Amino acid sequence: MATQPTIRIRDLTKEFGTFSALSGISLDINPSEVVCIIGPSGSGKSTLLRCTSFLEEYTSGEVEIEGRLLGYRRTASGLVRESEQNIDAVRRNVGMVFQHFNLWPHMTVLGNVTLGLRLTKHVPRAKAQEQGRRALAKVGLENFSDRYPSQLSGGQQQRVGIARALAMEPHVILFDEPTSALDPQLVGEVLDTMKQLAKEGITMVVVTHEMGFAAQVADRVVFMDGGKIIEQGPPAKLFNDPQSPRLQEFLDTWKSRNMLFQADGRSPGTAEEGARP
Amino acid sequence: MATFALVLDNLPIMLWGAAMTVLVAGVAIILGMPLGLILCFGVVSPKPWVSRISRIYQSVWRGTPILVQLLIIYYLLPLIGINVPSILAAILALTLNTVAFQAEIFRGGLLAISPGQLEAARMVGIRRWAARYHILMPQIFRLVIPSLVNETISILKNSSLVSVIAVTELMRVSQQIVATTYRPFEIYIAAGIIYIVINLLLSLAGRSAERHLEQGI
Ligand SMILES: Nc1ncnc2c1ncn2[C@@H]1O[C@H](COP(=O)(O)OP(=O)(O)O)[C@@H](O)[C@H]1O
Ligand SMILES: [Mg+2]
Description:
The structure holds 2 protein chains of 2 kinds.
Chain A lengths: L6 E10 L2 E11 L4 E5 L6 H8 L7 E6 L2 E2 L2 E4 L2 E4 L2 H8 L2 E4 L11 H12 L4 H14 L15 H14 L4 E5 L7 H16 L3 E5 L3 H7 L2 E6 L2 E6 L1 H6 L4 H19 L7 H5 L2
Parallel strand pairs in A: 3-10, 3-11, 8-9, 9-10
Antiparallel strand pairs in A: 1-2, 1-4, 4-5, 6-7, 11-12
Helix pairs in contact in A: 3-4, 3-5, 4-5, 5-6
Chain B lengths: L1 H42 L4 H16 L2 H14 L6 H26 L3 H9 L4 H31 L11 H12 L2 H29 L5
The site of magnesium ion has 3 residues of chain A, from helix 1.
């Protein structure tokens, strides 16, 4: 029997009023796979992640997490909206890391990382703190437990965001542009943390503009434009031999912008470097 | 000197009235907090009918004079077979009133918190009411302390109106003293000063509460 995909998306559409943000997305994410999603701004990358986590209700199609339909129940008369409880149950093994971190500013770092454990898994405080410290150690912040988010750099805050997701021991983590809100010099520490997770075999879906990271870490890169998946494949293939003119154009734009970055010495690495290790 | 003696003579009973003022207004404010929060979550509820009803409640209580509300409740309760002392009627009216205003204050605080924080809570499985309790409430309270102090001061001042239903708070006591001494000027100025002192103490308490909660943000 073939292994069941961690996430299975079929014919997914999302409409905002009359505007179609996603049309006909089908995508499987397999266990231990790292999939990077790239594409121009407004192409529906965030919406795809938000529908995959049901932070946003999708309009039609199906999202399954480890074989269980997310957000709806199949009945004789079609799909019916599921109760919040059951949505939470299906989503239990999905973690998410946000562009703007979304930490809880009134709680310490350890408080942020353990709140989910305590409230949803009912782990007793001492045990939750132990697990939380372990998650913080994974992102290199074991000595920051008692700080408040506002006392940390952006890169550290995002690592807390990652630790918060990790603490719940999810089977897959969705990252929505985890480094886009960071100053360039802080991007590296977050990407390094994510590389480490990838090495440990954590299933990851990463929306990113960091082509170097995608080239180096992704098993598969998905290019989206206009709410559709235009092209997907291994990073070396996608970056070096794009089939569609739109991907070609996207990569060209990125390269010329990156050249500018190189000129002022802030380059985070290029697609080419990573694609030919 | 005679003035001073007059006020001094009546000070104990006036302070007794002031204590009653603080009691009536204080109980109303404190009861109003949890109810105001619930009404606030009602106003922002995604369920249209919950939001509609909450808004109607708000416009009724914010759009009518507090004296009218007080008199209606005072005369309505016996009509529906509920006989309570006038002090309870007063507390009830002030509570129902401040709930409407506090809900609006809390809503202002809520708007200042990024919705992303709630999405993060959902992604670690935290249920809606638990998220409100552990994530929103502590932040809302810290944000709205200055507005809550203002609302408390406003309720304290408005509580002088409950003298019309014979609650012997500061205003009523002052009126009674004036009726026997015929010295309105001195007595009402003394009453005014007592109100100011209470409100100053309140502002100080509010500021110290803010300092204590500053940690984190
Ligand atoms: N809540 C919303 N209401 C209306 N339109 C939205 C909403 N969220 C996203 N969109 C639209 O959907 C499209 C895709 O958005 P998004 O998924 O955020 O793109 P990306 O993450 O690729 O930049 C955009 O045109 C955006 O304006
Ligand atoms: Mg986006």
